[in-house]
Design a protein that fits this description.
The complex is a heterodimer of chains A (448) and B (341).
Chain A (H helix, E strand, L loop, with lengths): L2 H43 L2 H35 L1 H10 L1 H22 L8 H30 L5 E3 L2 E3 L3 H5 L4 H29 L5 H35 L1 H8 L5 E2 L3 E3 L2 E3 L2 E3 L2 E3 L2 H7 L5 E2 L15 H28 L7 H27 L4 E3 L3 E2 H4 L6 H28 L3 H13 L4
Antiparallel strand pairs in A: 1-2, 3-8, 4-7, 5-6, 9-10
Helix pairs in contact in A: 1-2, 1-5, 1-7, 1-12, 1-14, 2-3, 2-14, 4-5, 5-7, 7-8, 7-12, 8-9, 8-11, 11-12
Chain B lengths: L2 H35 L3 H12 L3 H18 L2 H9 L1 H24 L4 H25 L4 E4 L2 E4 L1 H6 L1 H28 L3 H32 L1 H9 L1 H19 L4 H23 L2 E3 L3 E2 L7 H30 L2 H4 L8
Antiparallel strand pairs in B: 1-2, 3-4
Helix pairs in contact in B: 1-2, 1-3, 1-6, 1-8, 5-6, 6-8, 8-9, 8-12, 9-10, 9-11, 10-12, 11-12
The chains are: A mainly alpha (448), B mainly alpha (341).
Chain lengths: 448, 341
């Protein structure tokens, strides 16, 4: 196998692992916060439905977290196995957040174990809720630290290269690189948003499938409300991300927006197709790009003409960007309508078709997450470390990557199917109505 | 003590932690599967499940900690080991993934699938086998530099008696550690039948453990004489290790104090593991890589150590809490109370 093949298969395998892992990782970061909020609401309102909601979410969470942990271990090791030259560099400069991530993960793992096995062990529910705090913090901080590493790949800082040697290393500056604030905020908040909409979809789905229990209605209202709040936050952070890109990675922004020539009063291009270098059938929002990039309709935005041909990322990322943004806006509108609708007593938000739209929100938000990550990674091409190391120079020279690709693809198929089957069985065999009844009987039948 | 030694000591300690908790976990899965085969599942499954349930995820973290830490402290290892270990470590990851996720699937989703239990048990044996290959490779002689890139010679690796001795040791030690721990745990749970059975397993596996461990030292004489002669200088550590081993076996034989048997076992492995590690010094990979030429820059080293100390401040109390609630809680161990989600 020539090295070109090793590079190609390493890319495919990394993309496959990340695309699969990110689904479980996103849920893993977002859901603990949702469980915490539900349990807290339950304690505050003294409403057993919310407590049970937290409990059932926690049960499903175990399955997703298990897949998240093992695929996370896989990507952690694959980074060294597939990109040894990159990791040698990364080890020297950006190892600190990677190392801290293992602590966050450790912390989360320990308290998750405790939390899961101490339901009803404490007289005071609040004590039990307290055990969830480190789980949620650990989960979110895992995302924070790992995203710092990804931010570093986009905006490497904290070192100098003199005669091919890395010198003047400052791990703190490397961690707090310019890409870090927007990237970290975006990843964490969208994880919360996605988790909320996925859980909302489950509640809506149960309501559609015959159960009219108030439990599901409470769940739906709570999650849609949270989803709305986080999608607004996402939009605000998205705006900051645009400004970050314009300043530090203009080629990524220009490629994502199909902005070919540096110009003032730049319009924002949505959709469209490329024919012989011309953009056709696109929607142009006048001054849109100048606003996004510099908060000023007249500002000049750097176009792709400023970059050598071999440093421009593939232009299809434009569609990835559009998909991500459209889904984000769509979910904001949908959740806003639902929230207002419920408060105003609009019948329409409780109809079948509206609930189907909410169900559809789960796959949509996952697609948005995937598009966002593909945009982030493909948009950095040809670099693995922007302007420092190209992807093809980072890859392994091993000849067995194609075989490993097949093995891992098989693994992810097994894990994907397995997790879905187990989750479905788990909740179908123990519907909420029955569990509520059992719990009441337990309470009623208590002799002591 | 310099930073290099501090770094490798921290990592070595965590690797030891992984080997210990991992062995208990892997062995437990194997005994569980074996008991299904011999119809003794009624005796063992309950004890094993009670121990494994709250800690399965924690085990994995020790491993992650080790491999992330080694890239941080010794970045050059990414180049040498990353390039050459693609196949054995990938196989290890796949086994770990199947085992880890299916543990959750089985425990929380769908109980009682037999084929799965066998796979689970088998994976537990194959993981130490595939990961222990790394130790074999570190002895040198299996990696060549071709055009400046390290290449692993599989034929040489798999025809070497050293490889297979280390594989056998990893499996035997896994089962031995696990059996001794579970004997103590079952005894604590007041489960006489399970204690007796596990004690038997512990005694059975003690023999292959000590024989292969001795055999490996002997084989190193041929394979890597420099390491072999270094081992000689650390002979007191290996002697202590052997005495502790004898102590564990004696306590098990006499059915005395299983808690002490396990503590002595930990001592045995600590002395052997650190004796081995110290004699390997300064090489991470014979003859290419030492802890000195692969060490990171001082700024990174110091920040990693600071992060490590702060991290431990969080971890140790949490681990103590975990152990107090489950491992050392009589009500939980005996299965009187169940507070599962």
């Amino acid at each position: 196998m020539g090295n070109e093949e090793a590079v190609f298969y390493s890319r495919v395998l990394t993309e496959l692992t990340l695309s699969f892992h990110i689904i479980y990782a996103t849920i893993g970061v977002g859901v603990p916060l949702m469980i915490m909020i539900a349990q807290w609401v339950g304690i505050k309102k003294n409403d057993e439905h919310y407590i049970l909601l937290a409990r059932r979410w926690a049960r499903g969470f175990i399955i997703t977290v298990a897949v998240g942990v093992v695929t996370g271990t896989a990507i952690g090791l694959q980074l060294s196995l597939l990109w040894p030259n990159f990791m040698e560099f990364a080890g020297n400069v950006i190892a600190l957040p990677l190392f801290m991530e293992t602590f966050a993960f450790f912390f989360e793992a320990i308290f998750l174990g405790i939390y899961l096995y101490t339901w009803d062990r404490f007289e005071n529910q609040k004590k039990h809720l307290l055990l969830l705090v480190p789980v949620a913090i650990g989960a979110s901080f895992s995302a924070v630290f790992i995203t710092m590493v990804n931010a570093f790949m986009n905006a490497p800082r904290g070192f100098d290269i003199v005669d091919g040697e890395i010198v003047n290393i400052n791990p703190i500056i490397a961690m707090f690189n310019p890409a870090m604030p927007t990237k970290v905020a975006h990843v964490v908040i969208t994880a919360y948003m996605t988790a909320a909409f996925v859980l909302a979809a489950i509640a809506a789905f149960r309501l559609l499938k015959g159960s009219n229990h108030v439990y599901h209605k409470k769940a739906l209202y709570l999650t849609m409300k949270l989803g709305f709040v986080f999608s607004i936050a996402t939009a605000i952070i998205g705006d900051f991300s645009g400004k970050y890109l314009a300043e530090y990675q203009p080629e990524k922004l220009a490629a994502a927006e199909w902005h070919f020539e540096t110009q003032e009063n730049a319009p924002l291009v949505l959709l469209g197709v490329l024919k012989d270098g011309e953009v056709k059938y696109a929607i142009n929002i006048p001054f849109g790009l100048s606003m996004l990039a510099h908060n000023n309709p007249k500002a000049e935005v750097i176009g792709l003409d400023q970059f050598p041909e071999d440093e421009i990322p593939p232009l299809y990322i434009h569609y990835l960007f559009n998909i991500m943004v459209f889904i984000g806006m769509w979910m904001t509108i949908l959740s806003a309508l639902y929230w207002i609708g419920i408060n105003r007593g609009w019948k329409r938000v409780s109809t079948k078709w509206f609930r189907w739209l909410i169900v559809l929100g789960a796959p949509l938000t996952i697609i948005a997450i995937e598009s966002g990550w593909w945009l982030a990674e493909v948009g950095r091409q040809p670099w693995i470390l922007r302007k420092i190391m190209r992807v093809e120079d980072a890859a392994t020279t091993s000849g067995q990557v194609d075989l490993m690709l097949m093995l891992f693809a098989g693994l992810y198929i097994i894990l994907g199917i397995g997790s879905v089957v187990v989750l479905r069985r788990m909740f179908r065999n123990n519907p909420v109505e029955r569990e509520l009844e059992d719990r009441h009987m337990e309470k009623g039948g208590d002799v002591q | 003590m310099n930073l290099e030694i501090l770094g490798i000591s921290v990592l070595w300690t965590f690797l030891f932690g992984y080997i210990l908790v991992g062995a208990i976990d892997f062995g437990a899965g194997f005994f569980n599967a074996y008991s299904l085969l011999t119809g003794k599942q009624r005796i063992l499954t309950k004890v094993i499940q009670r121990y494994l349930s709250p800690v399965w995820e924690v085990t994995n973290v020790f491993l992650v900690f080790f491999f992330v830490g080694i890239i941080g402290f010794f970045p050059k290892t990414a180049f040498y080991y990353g390039t050459t270990l693609l196949v054995p470590v990938s196989l290890g990851i796949i086994l770990l993934a199947i085992r880890g996720s299916y543990y959750a699937f089985e425990t929380y989703g769908a109980r009682g699938h037999k084929g799965y239990s066998f796979m689970y048990g088998l994976a537990g044996i194959l993981i130490p086998a595939s990961l222990s290959i790394v130790l074999t490779i570190s002895e040198g002689g299996f990696i060549e530099l071709v055009d400046g890139n390290p290449v692993l010679d599989y034929w040489l690796l798999f025809t070497s008696p050293l490889t297979w001795s280390i594989v056998v040791l990893s499996i035997a030690a896994t089962l031995y550690i696990s059996a001794v721990f579970l004997t103590w745990y079952a005894n604590k749970a007041g489960d006489v039948e399970a204690t007796d059975l596990l004690r038997k397993y512990a005694l059975i596996w003690s023999l292959p453990t000590i024989i292969t461990a001795g055999g490996i030292i002997f084989e190193l004489r041929r394979h890597n004489f420099e390491h072999y002669s270094n081992i000689q200088t650390f002979w007191p550590m290996f002697l202590i290790s052997f005495l502790l081993f004898a102590g564990t076996v004696w306590l098990l034989w006499k059915r005395h104090n299983y808690g002490w048997a396990f503590i002595l076992l930990m001592g045995q492995f600590i002395f052997a593991f650190f004796g081995y590690g110290a004699s390997h010094y300064p090489y991470l990979l014979y003859p290419y890589l030492t802890i000195y030429d692969s060490f990171t820059n001082p700024a990174m080293a110091i920040s990693l150590i600071v992060a490590f100390i702060l991290g431990l401040g969080l971890l140790i109390p949490s681990l103590v809490l975990l152990m107090r609630l489950f491992l050392f809680n009589k009500g939980y161990v005996r299965g009187k109370k169940d507070f599962h989600v």
